[in-house]
Amino acid sequence: MNTQTSTTAKANNTHTSLADFIWKNADDLWGNFKHVDFGKIILPFTLLRRLECVLEPTREEAAKMHKMAVENGLDVDVILRQATGYPFYNTSSYSLETLGSGRTRQNLEDYIAKFSGNARVIFEQFDFINTISQMDKKGVLYKICQNFAAIDLHPDAVPERTMSNVYEHLIRRFGAEVNEAAEDFMTPRDVVHLGIELLLEPDDQMFIDNPGIIRTLYDPTIGTGGFVSDGMEHVQSLQDRYGTAPTLVPYGQELESETHAVCLASMLLKTLKSDPGRDLSQNIKLGSTLSADKFRHEKFHYCVSNPPFGKKWELDQAEVVREHRDQKFEGRFGPKLPRVSDGSMLFLLHLLSKLEDPAKGGGRAAIVLSGSPLFNGNAGQGESEIRRHLLEQDVVEAIIALPTEIFFRTGIGTYIWVLSNRKPADRRGKVQLIDATEMYEPLRKSEGNKRRKIGEDQIRDIVQLYADFEPTKKSLILDAQDFGYRRIKVLRPLRHKIVVSDAGFEALAEHKAWEKRSDAQRQGWRDLLAEHAGTDHDWHWIDSFAKAAAKKDATLGKADAALIKAFQKAFGVRDEDLDPVKDKKGNLIPDDDLTDYENVPMGTNIHDYLETEVTPHAHDAYIDETYVDETDGDIGIVGYEINFNRYFYEYVPPRDLDEIDAELKAIEASIAEVLAEVTE
Predict the structure, then answer these.
(1) 3-state DSSP: the chain helix, strand, coil percent, rounded to 5?
(2) Are 317 and 324 in contact (CB under 8 A)?
(3) Which range (81-85, 184-188, 277-281) has the least confidence?
(4) Is the pLDDT of residue 176 over 60?
(5) What is the pLDDT of residue 425?
(6) What is the distance between the alpha carbons of residues 84 and 289, in angstroms, rounded to a whole number?
(7) Which of the 8 DSSP states describes residue 7?
(8) What pLDDT shows up at residue 189?
């Protein structure tokens, strides 16, 4: 055992080596379990050992207090929480080391059963009793118990930050083993740290002025709890500077039961100085945030989230659509909804709904998203309408473009959006864009797709750019309106004549209205139309001709609007020298084939735009005034997009031709020298 402990001590140097050491228990599972099941064994045993190590120093005292409470009819729950100093306890006399080899399964089941309910639920979510039974049948249970008993996972040996990293490393390893994207939803610690710093930075002065102030922190996609744990750790670091640190009370919801269980274990080990007996694990709920919000009527001072990128929300669709339809802007999803292929923008709306009321001090949020929410969707579509809502409500404070290759399973570009419903005066009506794409350190060893990290120096620099709120090469301050535009429909008048031709008959065969006619009817129309082949007719001729022909000969069938439109499409020929075609009321008929759309920057007069940008190239173009926005009723549909490349693009002039020519000649000379040496 001493050798094992020594090895463990070395493994504790880094979370990766410790996680790898823990994973070595899988060596004793080969041949008895499929490798895809290893994670379901190793992760709950890791959690069990962590809880056991935490309770170990108070085990004897807790046993005495338990006996006393039972004998005197006292509340065991209250007594044992006081005895352990944590909101959980275990009344069993067993530990992993003392289970014995004869009745290991029975004793371990008793051990698990005698945890307090808030700890026992962790193992229930892993279906751990069933796992124990399988391990016992295959003769590996006692060995694995002894292996884990030899690992010191007490917080003094493995701090919370390191342990959180170990959990996440094991989950990533588990995901790789089963070929699942478990780590798709893991937020790298450097991104977590940056997000928390951005979120809390503006309130440092408030923490100084209000020692011990209590604030709430909520994550609707809490995973293993990295974001909230980092937030709590951040404010605790203020204690050395200001005497009494503020208190962050964590809340969260998680969809996946395994990661939810890990988060519960993490929260059981956290205590609040202002309320040391409080069970923070009760604030972590299981279920889908979008369709089953477990904090429906609650608001929070701070919100964080890293929702999965590009994940469909079809399983939540019925409930989300119902809330959108019934509650509109009184609910979470007031604007139009995004396409079902990606639900990340729904989390933007969800976070906004969770910010504390401005009358009570307001709230702030930081959310990590891919690039899609910046520009997906055209004017009037769900994604654009969500951006419109956020920008017109003036709740977007900043968006930070992060380096690529900083996530475990994807190398795509990612962004942190900072939201606030209590912007300071100088930020009102403004949005800050920060280009941090080159602010990173390369990793010495990549972790999946993660080849870079945002180091502490880079985090300080990014947060300083944000705090300074000054225009620089890497930081732009823009009006919210700068991202808006009106999408206008530009029409051109129809200048067509009707010319019956063989090419027209071939085109006519593609129209459904023509296909629906019987063979006899199609032949009848061919015969009639052929009599006018090669002759130019005005646009309206075909309408009167077809109706008159059908009236005269009933066997041709009815000359309905669909058939006449098919004739016009097939035999219509554009002639720019013709006068524009008008309808019976004298209105111009637009040429559908020439219809175009223009995005007019918000604040620009659409008629002035047409005159300067369109009519110089199409003199007869005009605006469709029936194409209006559903919200404000004005001409043109409002859209919003945030194009980072456009704002941070730097023009690099092409190299001088003489310089290029000289370089090519030098290369040719070098090649010639090499060839000369070869041929000598």
Answers:
(1) 50, 15, 35
(2) no
(3) 184-188
(4) no
(5) 95
(6) 33
(7) H
(8) 83
DSSP 318-386: HHHHHHHHHHGGGSS--SPPPPTT--HHHHHHHHHHHBPPGGGT--EEEEEEESHHHH-S-TTSHHHHH
Q: Which pLDDT does position 652 carry in this prediction? A: 79
SS (H, E, C) 179-245: CCCHHHHCCCHHHHHHHHHHHHHHHHHHHHHCCCCEEEEEECCCCCCHHHHHHHHHHHCCHHHHCCC
Is 175's pLDDT higher than 90?
Answer: no
For residues 83 and 600, what is the distance between their CA atoms, to the nearest angstrom? 68
Q: What is the mean pLDDT of the segment spanning 483-494?
A: 97
> In angstroms, how far is CA 680 from the centroid of its own chain?
65
User: Rounded distance, CA 288 to CA 266, Å?
Assistant: 20
Residue of higher predicted confidence among 308 and 57: 57
- Pairing relation of β-strands 396-401 and 430-435? parallel
CA neighbor of 261 nearest in space, from 195, 176, 367, 170? 170
What are the CA-CA distances from residue 379 to residues 375, 487, 596 (Å)?
10, 7, 14
Which tokens in the block code for residue 466?
Answer: 């944000």
Cα separations in angstroms, 283 against 18, 170, 299, 677: 29, 24, 13, 78
CB 602 within 8 A of CB 485: yes
Does residue 573 have a pLDDT over 50? yes
pLDDT band at 181 (very low <50, low <70, confident <90, very high): very low
Q: How far apart are CA 646 and CA 642, in angstroms?
A: 9
Which segment of 153-157, 244-248, 639-643 scores lowest on mean pLDDT? 244-248
Identify any residues that bridge with 453 across adjacent strands, giving them in sequence order: 441
> How do beta strands 364-370 and 414-420 pair?
antiparallel
Digit-coded pLDDT (tens) for 68-99: 989 899 999 999 999 999 999 999 999 999 99
Among candidates 109, 113, 104, which has minimal Cα distance to 138?
104
213's CB contacts (< 8 A; 6+ apart) are 206, 207, 246, 247
Tokens of 284: 């972590």
CA dihedral sign, ordered 245, 249, 253, 259: positive
**Gyration radius (Cα) of the chain, Å:** 35
Question: Stretch 226-250: mean pLDDT, rounded?
Answer: 79
pLDDT at 610: 97
pLDDT value for 4: 39
DSSP string, 467-502: HHT---SSEEEEEGGGGEEEEEEEE-B--EEEEB-H
Average pLDDT, the chain: 89
What pLDDT was estimated at residue 186? 67
User: What whole-number distance in Å separates Cα of residue 234 and Cα of residue 257?
Assistant: 27
Determine the distance from the C-alpha atom of residue 273 to the mean position of all C-alpha atoms in its chain, rounded to a whole number.
34
Q: Is 228 left (phi over 0), alpha (psi -120 to 50) or beta?
A: alpha
Of 308, 342, 339, the residue nearest 410 (C-alpha)? 308
Distance CA 568, CA 543 (A): 8
What does the DSSP assignment read for 38-96?
HHHHHHHHHHHHHHHHHHGGGHHHHHHHHHHHHHTT--HHHHHHHHHSSS--B--S--G
